[in-house]
Structure formats: structure tokens, C-alpha cells
């Protein structure tokens, strides 16, 4: 409706913004200067520890320097009370003693009717509370006591009882001259199909009043006392007051507690919310008999940027969490998300608090996981990905879910997190030689770099293994492999666009050097999906010394693969040669080991000694190769030996009967 000119200005002049806001916050006495109308507090719109919410009482304006929330008294009431513009005007006008201009007749009639319905609901609340104290409610009181609800808690939550019978509430309200149409319109009774009197909606049930954000009674939830009742829990039907998809149980108190930095917890039912609140988790709410709706999700995000969904640890609870993910993905905004705390199998928050105390629930809440992790769990748990087709099916399913996210920045970060989880699933469990598997440090939320602090914590205390003084002067089988590994890694880092072509070779590379193993895992993890970020991620995860040490090695510095970054043709030639040498050396090592074992079985010490001399000759050849390649040719086995050593080695093998056939 249109308000007369000047009405809102007069309303703003009559009210004090600091009084309106002061009902929701605690002013910081050290920072505020009340005489100047300058007030500071912790922001009621997000969680913070130091006050950044500023109210200028003289200008009638507030602003949060952290979350950028801003507005006047009307805006504040609308945001904190979750009401429309006209309802906010009515709230402030009532406080200011101003008469609101009459609406058009139809709107005024609707508003008056809603007010009457709210009065009828309040009378029903008081009736049910009185009935809980009667003899007919003895079984209900015993049940509540078994559930750990003291009489004081029952009073706090206004719990009542609907006696068994068809017209108990109906007769009580009619005796107070409550019109029949209002009783039915409030959802407290239903018309009879047999021409008799209307009958009570709730019978032989423990009653939980449901109030809106303004603390008005709008509906009831009833818990059946008869175990054979078709509906264990029954909510009021939807009415002019009650829309279950736009309501939350314990909305008002939870919103106030959340404004005081209490974590917002979303449970499944009334008893869970009551148990959590009584256990100290005062910002607890529950949807009303349905999965969380889009409207309820927006209501939750008005109270907290990251509500914790605390669901029962049974199949139904898990299914509810999965449905919520699908609904929430398109609604995600920067800074607005969900975390999921799944209770142990077969338990709900009420069970845990009664059996193990609030500490046990807090431990579960502390382990709440972000939504992307639960999405990954849903698509991978209990499945085997032992074929390309199954892996492709997983990729397709995840891509379809990520596409639902409208915000491009969030969609990008989800994609990065999924790539990270995929890498861990398909490659992360692979043994990494002496270096092991690369495990990113400071992981907090997702992507390649997640923590506020970088994983690299400074230069290593001692020299890196790749800079030990003399790989060349102490050449042996290990040194040979380390040299080749370093050239391979340097070439791939210099030309990361070819990494995908050598993925399988790189996965089979069992690094002899721990630092090389870390580099190998990073090249696999990052280089395939984000080659342009490879150097940056190496610096971030391993520190700037890693690349400097690698590229500074003598045999790397003279390698064509390292000296020609971006040259894919040269990189392919170098990689093909180096991988071939490594494979050949690995094959020869196996042959020598087998031959040595066989010879030792003959207990011929002289032959064993001569075989070790032949192996030493091979090692000398490897060392000499780096100094003067021109004097050597390639032996049949792929290892570079000079002619004299090759002939001696072959003659020895012929003599002991292990000549290569």
C-alpha cells in the first residue's frame, strides 16, 4: 500500500536507531562514544570477534566494515526479523506510537483476520500446556522425563498435551466464544464428513508450539503417544499463518543466539532441537517435516554464512543430506555454504547428548565437512573405478553437478577441489619410492593452495639430496638413476605441455631420490590438469629452492630439454631417450641380481668376486660417460660401456654360463 508523503521521514525521526539495534547487539563500551551518537558492536549479520559494526545514531544509518551490511532502522528490522517492508513499518510505528494509515479494505481485512488467528493459536498453546499437568497426561509426562526433559525445560519450550478424544480442544475454544471458522482456519480442527461436529486435529499427542521469527504461535507439531498411530509426528496443516516451507522450528531464539556468534545447527526434529539447545547449542533449528527448502535455506543464510547440517547417522539422514546438496548447489554464493556433521550410525543429536553429553556432539560438529567433500563421497563411496569407462562415468556425473553452480568463481573452485580429490583417488595411493607420495600440507578447504599459510616453511636445515657434492665422482647405480630422473623432471617442468603424453612413464618412475619423488608427484598431480600453474605450485609447496637445485645440477643444465623450454619436439626426443635408458638399466639390474643369487647358491666365491668386478666396471663406465661421451658406444643392453669393458663383461658371463641369449 502507498504511505502518505512524509510518513516514513516522521517515523525515522521518532525512533532511535541505537535503540532498535541495541536489542540485538551488545555495544562495545570502549569504542563507542554514546554522547556523540557513535556506537560500535560485533555485527549481528555475521560472526566476528572484534566490533566492526558501526551505528551513527544522528544520521540514522548503520554500516559493517567487515561484511558491508548497511541501511537504516527499517532495513535492520527487515533483515533481522525476516519480515516484509510493511511489517517492518508496522513494528517501528507501534514502538514510536504512530498510527499506521489504513490499508485498502481487503488488505486490512486480511491483516485483521491473521491477528485473530494468532490469538486463537495462543489460546490453544495455553490449553495444551494446562492439559499436560492433568492426570490424563501422566504417560506423556513419563515419556518426556525418559527423554531427559525436566519440568523447567518443558515450561521453557511450552510443551503441552492434546488429550485423547474428538472434541476436547474444540469444546474448550467454543466455550470461550471463539468462532468456529477461526478454529478450523487455524488448523486446530477439521470438518466432519458425517455431518457431525468438527473434530480436533491433534488427539493423544505431546504438543510442540511452532512460532515464527516474531514469536507468534502459527502452528503445532504433535508426537503420537499411541505406537500404532499412522503418523508418529504430525504438523498443523498449512494455513493463512503457517507455510511449512517458509518456517523453522525455534527460528526466533536461534536467530538471536546466532547473532551472538553461536554456530547455527540444523537438526531433523523438535526433540533434537530441544536437546541441542538445552545442551548449550542455542542456535539450533529444524525444518518442519520436510527436507530443507530453498526459502528455508535463504532464511538460514540470513542467520549464518555457513550453517552446520547435523543429520541422523542412518540411511534416511544421509539421503536427506544428499538431497540438500542438489538443492543448494545452484543457490551457492561467495561466502555462503553449508557444512555437514553426520552423527554416528543409528544415532541422532538427542541420543548423543543424553548418552554421551554435549562434548560428544561438539566433537562431531568439529569434524563437519564442507559440501564439496560430501558431494564427492556420494559419487564415489562403495564404487570401484577399475576401468576407463567407470572413471569417465564418475567425471561426467561430477561435471553435471558442478554445472549447477551459477557463481563462476565458486564453480571454478569446486572444479579444482574435485580434481584434487580425483588425483588422490586414482594416483595418490601409489607408492613413491623413497620419497613416498606427495601429500599437500596446510590443506583447509580445497584447490591447490588452501591455507592462509604456505606449505613451504623455509629452506631445509641441511643440504638437499640433489646438491650432494659428488654424484659424478661417486657414480653407482643409484647415482645413474638420479641423474636420469633429474633430466626427465627438468624437461617436463620446462615444457609442461607434453606431460600428459608421458603420464604412464612418469607413474612407473620409482624415484631413488626423495626430492625427485616429491617433484614427480607434483608434476603428475598439477601438470596434467593445470600445466601453466606447475612452477607456481612447486614453489608454493616445496619452496623456491626446489627448482633452483634441480635446474642447477650440472647434467641438467647441459640437457637440451632444460635449455629449450617450450620446445615440444626437443622435449619428446630427450624424454624418449632418458626413459629408455632408465628402463634398460632397470632390466640389467634385475638380470645381475638374479645371476648373483644363482652364483651365490653355487658358493663359488671366486666367480662371485669376478662378477662384482664386472659390475664395478659398468659403474665406472657410467661415470666416464658424463665426462667424455665420444669414446663410448652403446652396448646391446642399452648401458654405455667402452669396448674393452664390454668384451670383458661378456667373456665373464660366457664363462660362467649366463651369457645373454
TrEMBL record:
Organism for this UniProt entry: Tritonibacter litoralis
Region (Disordered): 433-466
Cofactor: Zn(2+)
Biased composition (Low complexity): 453-464
Manner of cofactor binding, per the entry note: Binds 1 zinc ion per monomer.
Descriptive protein name: DNA primase
Catalyses which reaction(s): ssDNA + n NTP = ssDNA/pppN(pN)n-1 hybrid + (n-1) diphosphate
Domain of life: Bacteria
Family: Belongs to the DnaG primase family.
GO cellular component terms, semicolon-separated: cytoplasm; DNA-directed RNA polymerase complex; primosome complex
Keywords of the record: Coiled coil, DNA replication, DNA-binding, DNA-directed RNA polymerase, Magnesium, Metal-binding, Nucleotidyltransferase, Primosome, Transcription, Transferase, Zinc, Zinc-finger
Presence of the UniProt keyword Cell inner membrane in the record: no
Function text: RNA polymerase that catalyzes the synthesis of short RNA molecules used as primers for DNA polymerase during DNA replication.
Amino acid at each position: 500500500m502507498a504511505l502518505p508523503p512524509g510518513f516514513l521521514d516522521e517515523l525515522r525521526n521518532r525512533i532511535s536507531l541505537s535503540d532498535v539495534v541495541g536489542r540485538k547487539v551488545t555495544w562495545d563500551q570502549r569504542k563507542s562514544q554514546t554522547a556523540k551518537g557513535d556506537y560500535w558492536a560485533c555485527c549481528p549479520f555475521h560472526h566476528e570477534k572484534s566490533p566492526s559494526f558501526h551505528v551513527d545514531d544522528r544520521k540514522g544509518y548503520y554500516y559493517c566494515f567487515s561484511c558491508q551490511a548497511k541501511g537504516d532502522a527499517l532495513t535492520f528490522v527487515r533483515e533481522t526479523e525476516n519480515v516484509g517492508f510493511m511489517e517492518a513499518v508496522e513494528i517501528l510505528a507501534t514502538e514510536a506510537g504512530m498510527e499506521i494509515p489504513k490499508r485498502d479494505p481487503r488488505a486490512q481485512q486480511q491483516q485483521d483476520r491473521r491477528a485473530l488467528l494468532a490469538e486463537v493459536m495462543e489460546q490453544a498453546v495455553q490449553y495444551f500446556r494446562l492439559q499436560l499437568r492433568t492426570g490424563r497426561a501422566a504417560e506423556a509426562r513419563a515419556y518426556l522425563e525418559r527423554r531427559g526433559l525436566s519440568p523447567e525445560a518443558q515450561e521453557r519450550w511450552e510443551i503441552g498435551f492434546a488429550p485423547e478424544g474428538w472434541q476436547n480442544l474444540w469444546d474448550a475454544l467454543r466455550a470461550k466464544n471463539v468462532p468456529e471458522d477461526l478454529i478450523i482456519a487455524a488448523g486446530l480442527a477439521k470438518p466432519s464428513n458425517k455431518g457431525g461436529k468438527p473434530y480436533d486435529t491433534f488427539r493423544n499427542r505431546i504438543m510442540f508450539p511452532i512460532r515464527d521469527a516474531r514469536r507468534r504461535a502459527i502452528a503445532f507439531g504433535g508426537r503420537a503417544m499411541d505406537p500404532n498411530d499412522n503418523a508418529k509426528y504430525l504438523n498443523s496443516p498449512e494455513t493463512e499463518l503457517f507455510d511449512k516451507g517458509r518456517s523453522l522450528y525455534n527460528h526466533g531464539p536461534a536467530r538471536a543466539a546466532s547473532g551472538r556468534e553461536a554456530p547455527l545447527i540444523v537438526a531433523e526434529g523438535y526433540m533434537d532441537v530441544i536437546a541441542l539447545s538445552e545442551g548449550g547449542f542455542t542456535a539450533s533449528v529444524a525444518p518442519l517435516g520436510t527436507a530443507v527448502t530453498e526459502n528455508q535455506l535463504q532464511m538460514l543464510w540470513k542467520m549464518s554464512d555457513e550453517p552446520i547440517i547435523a543429520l541422523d547417522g542412518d540411511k534416511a539422514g544421509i539421503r536427506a543430506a544428499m538431497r540438500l546438496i542438489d538443492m543448494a548447489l545452484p543457490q551457492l554464493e561467495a561466502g555462503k555454504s553449508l557444512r555437514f556433521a553426520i552423527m554416528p550410525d543409528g544415532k541422532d543429536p538427542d541420543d548423543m547428548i543424553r548418552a554421551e553429553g554435549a562434548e560428544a556432539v561438539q566433537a562431531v560438529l568439529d569434524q563437519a565437512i564442507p559440501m564439496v567433500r560430501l558431494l564427492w563421497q556420494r559419487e564415489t563411496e562403495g564404487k570401484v573405478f577399475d576401468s576407463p569407462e567407470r572413471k569417465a562415468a564418475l567425471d561426467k556425473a561430477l561435471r553435471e553437478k558442478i554445472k549447477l553452480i551459477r557463481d563462476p568463481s565458486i564453480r571454478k573452485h569446486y572444479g579444482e577441489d574435485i580434481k584434487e580429490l580425483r588425483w588422490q583417488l586414482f594416483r595418490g595411493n601409489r607408492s613413491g619410492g623413497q620419497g613416498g607420495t606427495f601429500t599437500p600440507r596446510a590443506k583447509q578447504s580445497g584447490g591447490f593452495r588452501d591455507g592462509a599459510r604456505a606449505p613451504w616453511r623455509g629452506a631445509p636445515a641441511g643440504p638437499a639430496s640433489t646438491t650432494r657434492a659428488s654424484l659424478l665422482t661417486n657414480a653407482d647405480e643409484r647415482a645413474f638413476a638420479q641423474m636420469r630422473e633429474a633430466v626427465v623432471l627438468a624437461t617436463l617442468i620446462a615444457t609442461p605441455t607434453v606431460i600428459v603424453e608421458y603420464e604412464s612413464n612418469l607413474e612407473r618412475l620409482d624415484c631413488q631420490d626423495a626430492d625427485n619423488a616429491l617433484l614427480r608427484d607434483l608434476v603428475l598431480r598439477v601438470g596434467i590438469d593445470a600445466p601453466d600453474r606447475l612452477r607456481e605450485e612447486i614453489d608454493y609447496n616445496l619452496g623456491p629452492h626446489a627448482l633452483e637445485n634441480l635446474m642447477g645440477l650440472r647434467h641438467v643444465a647441459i640437457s637440451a630439454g632444460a635449455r629449450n623450454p617450450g620446445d615440444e619436439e626437443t622435449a619428446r626426443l630427450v624424454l624418449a631417450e632418458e626413459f629408455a635408458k632408465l628402463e634398460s638399466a632397470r632390466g640389467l639390474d634385475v638380470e645381475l641380481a638374479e645371476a648373483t643369487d644363482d652364483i651365490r647358491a653355487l658358493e663359488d666365491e671366486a666367480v662371485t668376486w669376478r662378477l662384482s668386478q664386472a659390475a664395478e666396471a659398468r659403474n665406472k663406465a657410467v661415470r666416464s660417460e658424463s665426462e667424455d661421451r665420444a669414446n663410448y658406444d652403446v652396448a646391446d643392453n642399452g648401458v654405455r660401456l667402452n669396448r674393452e669393458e664390454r668384451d670383458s663383461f661378456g667373456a665373464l658371463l660366457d664363462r660362467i654360463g649366463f651369457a645373454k641369449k
